[in-house]
Amino acid sequence: MAASKKVIKAKGISKVYQMGEVQVHALRGVDISIKEGEVVSIMGPSGSGKSTLMNIIGCLDRPTSGEYFLDGQLVSNMSDDELAIVRNKKVGFVFQNFNLLSRSTALINVELPLRYSGVKNERKEKAIQALESVGLGDRVNHKPTELSGGQQQRVALARAIINNPSIIMADEPTGNLDSKSGKEIMQLLLNMNKEFGTTLIIVTHDPKIAEQTERIIKLYDGKVKARKSK
To answer: What CATH fold (topology level) applies to the domain 38-43+76-229?
Structure first.
């Protein structure tokens, strides 16, 4: 792994939302870069722009102005369809609310990114392997309502890694979990970074979570105010 390679580079990123006659400036000229294999947390109070920045980094949205490069590719001007392709290949998401299909089994939930990618062969086998890797090999046919919060987040994590993404983005991944389950999820995320060199970006309010990362990026009022490295 080339430690100097920048997998994420954002230059002058701004995002403006039009709310009726009012313009809301969510991001104001943000410059950040994240190296391949880094473990980084993004912190800031509510309204600081954390979620907006995550959406842009994860190719869920485009900036109003500025340039965003992912793996050296300019993605900030891509169409929605082009962003979807890049997102599905390169980024895995873990959300606070799990975002699982409630009527579908763990297996089907984990298979979803493969379906979107057009993969037809070995979907079941790959999904089972992903569930086994997060300790849920015996829960493949359980629905989310039959799983604890920690187990649901493990399903979400298995879904995030099914396409072998180079980046995992976790938005408050322990926010809805008890302390024991939260520690287990964080350990799984950190292990994936150690074992596979996956770049890990965690959006969090929790200083205890941020302290486990290599670098903290703090946002205030849409601007990067401090960068803290260990």
So the answer is: Rossmann fold (3.40.50)
- Coil/strand/helix, residue 118: coil
**Which pTM does this prediction carry?**
0.90
pLDDT tens digits for range 98-142 = 999 999 999 999 999 888 877 877 889 999 999 999 999 999 999
The two beta strands, 167-171 and 199-203, are: parallel
Rg (CA), the chain: 17
Q: Describe the chain by its helix, strand, coil percentages, rounded to 5.
A: 35, 30, 35
Contact at 8 Å (CB) between 94 and 168?
yes
Distance CA 72, CA 9 (A): 8
How far, in Å, CA of 116 to CA of 101, rounded?
15
User: Where do the structural domains in the chain lie, given as residue ranges?
Assistant: 38-43+76-229
